[in-house]
Design brief:
Helices cover 43% and strands 11% of the residues. By secondary structure, it is α+β, with helices and mostly antiparallel strands. Helix 2 packs antiparallel against helix 3 and helix 5 packs antiparallel against helix 6.
Length: 288
């Protein structure tokens, strides 16, 4: 009896061990299947997003009308934004004013802009000594908007506030902003940068001008003679014309595609010159 009992215990322990091994194998297989499901879903969403992006870019190049009812598609003018690569000299006041209008302290906004100048320019002279050694900066235009997070004084909170109204394209050429589509915040920062003793105008003149531009641009072309400007407003408006984009040349295309099987989502975007068809940027695939 004792031998039979011992044998039974051995058998039971064997069953337990085999059960544990079986459960481990089941969990391993489930994990592998889940991983495979994610990999397949990831690949399918990426392929779908890239294919859709290529199709839209091709339509832009052929100047074809693009249907805007697609919920996965977002198209907007890129030249409604402030091109931080194109800012030169006093034009950096546009960015400083824009930051201040978003609640950033004047000293911090000035610091960010000063370090941005050092980041972009090719010389070895610091704009705001002695905060940072010039050798630690890139000394070249920004290749990605996220580079702003490397600028001393900039942080994620500020970046999240302003990134939708900033661009780095095109990397070369003069500053051009579309009055017709720029946000009120950009228009105000732009107009305010041109006020002061040199133009004999005030910030209040800039604010009243921007109000008239916003009120008028929904009904017709933005021209001085159509807006009943006072002399100070007209001076600012005339100065703004040197950086005005009469027509949109750049569009930002963003596509988001999901795989229904895995729930995996991929977002891709590109900046396209719809006059020449050149694609200035196609981002790496971002997994959401």
């Amino acid at each position: 009896m004792r031998e039979r009992g011992s044998a039974l215990i051995v058998v039971l322990w064997g069953i337990v061990i085999l059960s544990l091994l079986g459960l481990s194998l089941i969990h391993y297989v489930e994990g592998e299947m889940l991983l495979m499901k994610r990999m397949v879903g990831d690949s399918k969403s990426k392929i779908s997003a890239v294919f859709a992006l290529c199709r839209i870019v091709d339509q832009i190049r052929k100047h074809q009308k693009i249907a805007d009812e697609d919920p996965d598609l977002k198209i907007e003018e890129e030249d409604r934004k402030i091109n931080i690569n194109a800012l030169l000299g006093p034009q950096h006041l546009i960015l400083q004013n824009f930051l201040e209008n978003h609640g950033i302290e004047e000293s911090q906004a000035r610091e960010i802009v000063g370090h941005l100048i050092d980041w972009k320019d090719a010389d070895q002279v610091t704009f705001l000594p002695p905060h940072q050694a010039e050798e630690s900066f890139k000394n070249a235009p920004l290749d990605h908007l996220e580079e702003l997070l490397l600028i001393p004084g900039m942080n994620l909170e500020i970046y999240q506030k302003v990134k939708q109204d900033l661009t780095i394209f095109p990397k070369q050429g003069p500053l051009r902003i579309r009055m017709e589509t720029a946000s009120p915040e950009i228009l105000l920062a732009w107009a305010e940068s041109l006020t002061g003793p040199s133009s004999n105008t005030s910030v209040m003149d800039a604010k009243s001008l921007v109000e008239k531009i916003i009120a008028h641009r929904e009904n017709g072309p933005i021209e001085a003679q159509e807006m009943s400007l006072i002399p100070e407003e007209e001076i600012i408006f005339r100065l703004m014309l040197s950086s005005r984009a009469r027509i949109s040349s750049l569009v930002s295309v963003e596509i988001e595609k999901s795989d229904s099987f895995s729930g995996w989502t991929t977002k891709v975007n590109a900046v396209v010159d719809h006059r020449t068809g050149a694609v200035y940027s196609q981002t790496s695939l971002d997994l959401l």
